[in-house]
Amino acid sequence: MVKERIDFWQMAVLVLLGLAIVSTGCGLTAAQKAGIGQFSRATAAVGETTADELAKMREGVIQANTSTLIIIGEDRPAPGETTPRMALITPATVERQFTIHNISRIGHAAKALQSYGELLQALVEDTQAKELRGAAEAFVANLKAVPGVSLEEKEAGAITAAVYAIGRMIVEMKKARAVKTIVPTVAPHVDKITGLLAAEFDPNRDGSLGSAFRAAAERLRAEGATAFREAKTPADRAVILPAWEYGRTASLRSDEIHKRSSIAIAGIQKSHKMLVEAMKTDRWTAEDTKAIVSEFDQEIKAVAKLTAELVERSKLLK
Known about the structure:
Largest sheet: none
Distance between the termini: 70 Å
Number of strands: 0
Order of helices and strands: HHHHHHHHHH
Helix content: over 70%
Radius of gyration: 25 Å
Number of domains: 1
Strand content: under 5%
Structural class: mainly alpha
């Protein structure tokens, strides 16, 4: 009888605690989960795609520049250069700005963006505590590795502490608290890495990796077309044709992948700023928040659609 009475009171306390949580809105609402879930999936997908694309861009530039130098037989000045390089095929002439150091620098930003999306996704889905902690640690590690991003120890501690606080009891409340801690804490850093990635993938921005890739592709296509016209024998044309075709495909990749990547990342940057503002209101129902939430929903749906197209084209242009 005594044990049954204790069990009854334990159950009563749990029920009252659950009702208190629901009535005070401690967890994320369905609208918040849906919006953040869509944002996190798009962010993780764009981060992963751009990280993979960086390695392909480096390989593509090396192949394009090597083929161009073989076709023309000398290293003439590339667009924007006043003098040719001294030697023909060297790391300097084929890599140009796609050095291991430079690619690694941008790659860390892409990985940080990917792991941020994965962390938010884990927080709004039914994820075990161990996976949540792993996602938080991966994000902090990747963010710290980005040159120019100064994640303070107190910020890193706030992120991991918010996730480590999630236990078996009152999980939804603690997940909501973690999201509301992490999103504003990392806002300036997310803004920085998305700005860096959007700029570097923009093929129309002078000095970017995207523009350097396009220049190498266009140079190969132009030199290949000239060499093909001037070739004396079918055997010579047969050698030149694959290089010209690669230049044409690489130019297509610049428009289909790199331009879309830049636009998608810029969209994530914009929607994240709106998410930060929207998260200031607990349930997204205040009049001054509804407009932000509505704009956020529209923006992230557009980004999600663009991301799906980006992933599809990336698979087609492997």
